[in-house]
Design brief:
The complex is a heterodimer of chains A (235) and B (376). Chain A has 235 residues and is α/β, with parallel strands linked by helices. Chain A is built from 8 helices and 7 strands, in the order E-H-E-H-E-H-E-H-E-H-E-H-H-H-E. Chain A is globular. Chain A starts with 49 loop residues before the first strand and ends in a 5-residue tail after the last strand. The mean pLDDT of chain A is 93. In chain B, 11% of the residues lie in helices and 50% in strands. In chain B, the strands form 7 sheets. A 4-stranded antiparallel sheet of chain B has the order 1-2-3-4, with no helix packed on it. In chain B, strands 5-6-7-8 form a 4-stranded antiparallel sheet, with no helix packed on it. A 4-stranded antiparallel sheet of chain B has the order 9-10-11-12, with no helix packed on it.
């Protein structure tokens, strides 16, 4: 099986996350059959739960990079666009067929992360969440569509374990400031200082793993990283 | 819309921009001032009475005002302009604040005593249908069109305690189990009433009204008419839902199901987390009611074509509940006001369903053709 060609999967960058789309989602996380996404787990691994979540995974570059780095952890990419999520799926299937026993821990799901996270994940299930080059939704009226905001952060805090980590990167300075502002304001998150990030091998991968990141490099754009930790409620 | 609330001291009905406040002997009509130049006809979309019967709050649909009246003084206490149409208002446990659940998915809180108060507590990305504060004041619970019940800590609502997930359609009413408020009950468009350990988000019991409706013709008509609008349904939704306590181990739950001319009256018992329910009675009505409300051992059924409340008394004898019609109360006497039609009742329930549109299948078809072409 050969890797999919991106030209067949292009789709405009924006999707209205608030409209009713036709999504299949379980009523409760216990109702979801994860063996469809991770069909070849070893016997002692079938009870594993997704721990890394790439929200808006685009063409799946980060998942493919992290898969061999963290073979013990199940990772999932969420992508709302039909063609793009299908590309990632075809990419993973091709990688699995080309490399036996590899890429079994990564999968993609087409869903709306702004609405359905609690349907898929239990409280405190996730260890890491990624928001890489999210749609900036420049217009003020569209700010409510941004994937990071004060209210959605409560949902992310719910699915994240305490001490879990949120990674963000963007080439849009205004969006970086917006994300930092909301994450710093939220009582369940604290920023991890830049010098502490040096020991985290994931951080350097944020810059170049994704198609979006490579495009920014080609255009000599800036990249802004901000990483946060889920902390307990002090109230 | 038509609304009914009841306490020991008052029965209150709202209709258009009028409120009939009945103290079990006299009626007082409160007219909500009409705000000029509204794009659409304005009306009261929800009404609440404080637990101590000292305040009434109403919220209007088009002018989007939250008005609070002091019941004894019969005076308007506060007027708040709310940002979006509200679907439900409730007083907090201590009666000092009002929770507003709105159609954009936000819960806001207003201080009865403070002008211009009003802050957002939390947001769903889905139309909200009900909101409730727990009696220990430590949680605010909200439910939405996306089958979800969310339990947030209070006042630290940024911290989500849990979700109660199990309904298959919109969740339109939530109430604590009257004989034990450790448990939450909910009603839904999926035709079920569910009982939850809400602090854990655990489903403990389901009452499926479709077992007790047994009107296949009615159900099929509903399925067909919804199908014409591109909406797939399998059962009749619960429309009205109300609860009351019978004794320390028994609650009564009453519900109506879309266009089924009866009130289903259930009793629920539990031994710790083990629940059982029993259909006590199908109270057959002449027509589908505009509102129902249980208060203590009274069931109020409001019909707004005649503006009449029929009062039924629930009696428990030898472990079974009997229901007797006791009296009728004429509301809005000498007041000429319009009627709600079956049509508007249907429209208000229809918008809660999600239309199915499949943009994946078409894509998969085209992809298949492409792959067949290239493999040739």
């Amino acid at each position: 099986m050969s890797l999919p060609q991106k030209k067949y999967y292009r789709q405009r960058a924006h999707s209205n996350p608030i409209a009713d789309h036709c999504f299949e989602y379980p009523t409760h996380p216990d109702d979801y059959d994860w063996s469809i996404l991770y069909p070849n787990l070893k016997k002692d691994e079938v009870d594993k739960k997704v721990e890394f979540l790439d929200v808006g995974c685009g063409y799946g570059g980060l998942l493919v990079t992290l898969s061999p780095m963290y073979p013990e952890n199940l990772m999932l990419g969420l992508e709302i666009r039909v063609k793009v999520s299908d590309y990632v799926n075809d990419r993973i299937q091709a990688l699995r067929s080309q490399h036996s026993n590899q890429y079994q821990n990564v999968a993609v799901l087409r869903t709306n992360a702004m609405k359905y996270l609690p349907n898929f994940f239990h409280k405190g299930q996730l260890k890491k969440m990624f928001f890489l080059y999210p749609d900036p939704h420049f217009k003020k009226a569209k700010h409510k569509w941004r994937i990071i905001n004060k209210w959605l952060l409560s949902e992310y805090a719910y699915v994240l374990a305490e001490q879990g980590i949120v990674y963000t990167i963007t080439d849009v300075k205004d969006l970086n400031e917006w994300m930092v502002f909301h994450l710093e304001e939220h009582p369940l998150f604290e920023r991890i200082p830049d010098d502490e990030l040096k020991s985290d091998p994931i951080v350097e991968k944020l810059y170049e793993s994704t198609e979006e990141g490579k495009k920014v490099t080609r255009n000599n754009g800036d990249k802004y990283v901000a990483v946060f930790r889920r902390i307990p409620d002090k109230a | 819309m038509s609304l009914l609330v009841a306490t020991d001291k008052y029965i209150v009905v709202a209709r258009e921009l009028h409120v009939d406040l009945y103290d079990y002997s006299n009626h007082k009509i409160i007219d909500i001032p009409l705000i000029p130049k509204q794009p659409e006809r304005d009306y009261i979309s929800d009404i609440a009475i404080s637990n101590d019967s000292s305040y009434i709050a109403v919220v209007t649909a088009t002018s989007k005002q939250l008005l609070v009246y002091d019941v004894l003084q019969q005076e308007r206490q506060q007027t708040f302009n709310i940002p979006r149409s509200a679907s439900k208002i409730r007083f907090t446990v201590d009666n000092s604040q009002i929770l507003v659940a709105d159609k954009s998915g936000d819960v806001l809180i207003y201080d009865v005593k403070k002008e211009n108060s009003g802050t957002k507590l939390l947001g769903h990305l889905s139309l909200l249908l009900d909101v409730l504060q727990s009696n220990d004041t430590k949680c605010v619970i909200s439910c939405d069109r996306d089958e979800k019940i969310r339990v947030s800590c209070f006042p630290n609502t940024y911290n989500i305690q849990t979700y109660c997930l199990g309904h298959k359609e919109f969740v339109n009413h939530i109430e604590f189990l009257p004989h034990n408020d450790k448990f939450l009950t909910s009603s839904s468009g999926d035709g079920t009433i569910k009982i939850w350990d809400y602090s854990e988000g655990r489903l403990l019991h389901t009452v499926d009204t479709s077992n007790d409706v047994n009107d296949d013709q009615l159900k099929q008509n509903f399925i067909n008419i919804m199908d014409e609008g591109g909406i797939e349904v399998t059962t009749l939704p619960i429309v009205h839902y109300t609860t009351s306590k019978i004794d320390d181990s028994t609650s009564v739950l009453a519900a109506t199901v879309h266009m089924f001319n009866a009130v289903l009256i259930y009793t629920v018992n539990n031994i710790e987390n083990q629940f059982s329910h029993k259909l006590e009675l199908k109270l057959i009505l002449e027509k589908f009611p505009s509102a129902i409300k249980l208060h203590k051992n009274a069931l109020f059924v409001y019909d707004d074509t005649e503006c009449i409340i029929t009062v039924y008394k629930l009696e428990q004898t030898n472990g079974t509940i009997s229901v007797e019609e006791s009296n009728k109360i004429k509301m809005f006497e000498n007041k000429n006001i319009g009627k709600e039609t079956d049509e508007s009742q249907f429209e208000s329930i229809k918008v809660l369903y999600k239309r199915k549109f499949d943009n994946v299948q078409e894509y998969q078809e085209r992809k298949k053709q492409r792959l067949e072409k290239t493999s040739k």
